[in-house]
Write a structure and sequence with these properties.
By secondary structure, the protein is α+β, with helices and mostly antiparallel strands. The chain is about 45% helix and about 25% strand. Strands 1-2-4-3 form a four-stranded antiparallel beta sheet, with helices on one face. About 20% of the residues are buried.
């Protein structure tokens, strides 16, 4: 079930660095170098497989941008919030 605007606002106020872009949660992580960015992306991929919820991952040298949404629901769900929290813990 899609989240309410209030639920999304609460998550964003309590989780530094995440923002909302239309139907997605977005966060950009700065790593020390390209190799560290790649290692982080691999950790994200492993966790995404466990969660069975896969973010869009963009790697730009030492920056990794994650985008989360639940396509089947057409927006953000509890699964996105859980994934965001668990992915943050990997950084």
């Amino acid at each position: 079930m899609k989240l309410s605007e209030e639920q999304i606002a609460n998550f964003l106020s309590e989780n530094e660095g995440w923002s909302r872009e239309e139907k997605e949660l977005v966060k950009r992580y700065a790593c020390v170098d390209f190799k560290a960015a790649m290692a982080f992306a691999v950790r994200v991929a492993d966790k995404a497989e466990q969660l069975r919820h896969h973010p869009s991952i963009l790697i730009d040298y030492n920056k990794v941008t994650l985008r989360l949404t639940t396509h089947d629901e057409g927006g953000l769900t509890e699964l996105d919030l859980r994934a965001a929290s668990e992915l943050d813990a990997l950084f």
